[in-house]
Design a protein that fits this description.
- The protein is mostly helical.
- The protein contains three helices and no strands.
- The longest helix has 23 residues.
- The termini are far apart.
- Keywords: Membrane, Transmembrane, Transmembrane helix.
């Protein structure tokens, strides 16, 4: 006895209107810029925070991304 093959329905691509995608792209871009700032710049004279907590929190990420800090 042979099992009949189960055919999956055809997958149709979903179109996303740019008006729905643009706000999320802008929001993601702002978050990326904030992350780059805190990883790459938040240290020394350009620091927003006076303590070294942010620097120490992202210290390994700085080295991973190639930002100098020592």
């Amino acid at each position: 006895m042979h099992a009949s093959p189960v055919l999956a329905p055809a997958i149709q691509p979903v179109s996303l209107p740019i008006r729905q995608l643009l706000p999320w792209a802008v929001f993601g871009g702002i978050l990326m810029l904030l992350a780059i700032y805190f990883v790459g710049v938040e240290e020394g004279a350009a620091a927003i925070f006076n303590s070294m907590y942010v620097h120490e929190f992202v210290h390994d990420g700085r080295h991973l991304l190639g930002f100098p800090c020592h």
